[in-house]
Amino acid sequence: MIVVSAASGALGRLVVERLLARIPATDLTVAVRSPDRVDDLAARGVRVRRGDYDEPDTLNAAFKGADRLLLVSSPELDPTRRTGHHRAAVDAARDAGVGAVVYTSFLDAGTRADGLTAAHHVTEQALRDSGLPHTLLRHPFYSEAFLNPGLHVAVSDGELSDGTGGHGINTASRADLAEAAARVLTEDHHLGRAYDFTGVRWTFPELAGILSRMHGRPIRHRERDPLPGVSGWLERQVRSGALERQTDDLTRVLGRPPTSLRQAVGELFPAAGT
Fold first, then answer.
1. In what order do the strands lie in the sheet with 169-172?
2. What are phi and psi of 132, to 5 degrees?
3. What percentage of the chain carries pLDDT values higher than 90?
4. How many folded domains does the chain comprise?
5. Are residues 205 and 264 both part of a single domain?
6. Taking the alpha carbons of 180, 183, 187, 191 in that order, is the dihedral positive or negative?
7. Are the CB atoms for 223 and 166 separated by under 8 Å?
8. pLDDT, tens digit, for every residue of 140-178?
9. Between the chain's N and C termini, which has fewer beta carbons within 10 Å?
10. How many CA atoms lie within 13 A of 99 on its CB side?
11. Is 29 helix (H, G, I), strand (E, B) or coil?
């Protein structure tokens, strides 16, 4: 039996759909905070259990009997709270006798413990210390963080601005990452591996060109100063080249190249194709 935690979230839902294309519904269990949010999955034969990261006592029963558990990282951004969620989940998986854990980590979490990698770094260590067989899926930023309905404004104004200094960005779509997770959960040669997933490197000038061609009118790219706050931190990461790295891990697991920028724009922002 495969158990997917946080299965009502954006990534978890996609993983469940990919798994249902590969295994019978009766072999799948979802652990969610609010079971009533996944009534449709229960109607399809998927076992639904309550498993809330904020209530560690619910996790042991939620993970019981799992041959493999997909531990989707907590949506909590505060490193202390997120670390607590993950430690509780790893402890529950060990106590429940889970056969193996697949964990959605973040790029560089194996070597860095600061910023967005802080909680992931601790969780990777907790998995090693637990003795549980496991696989690490280190994700990049989601493409959806950049390619979203906010592009309507750029198309309307005829201008796409950003503060990345022309540097490239490696992102991957949730759909690709979900498919990769489903493959890792249902194939036998991934245990003990740590995968660094990256998508196709792209730049904002390239994005402006794609939008221009899709809409049949020019959309100019304009460089601006980095924004303050969280988005400013992200732009500084891009400017430093920290998000330009590329690996072949996602391609190897998927058995195909990751979704291209042109495909991603069409899928994530359908209006751009009209």
1. 141-142, 169-172, 201-202
2. -75, 135
3. 74
4. 2
5. yes
6. positive
7. yes
8. 999 998 888 888 888 889 999 988 888 899 999 999 999
9. C
10. 11
11. strand
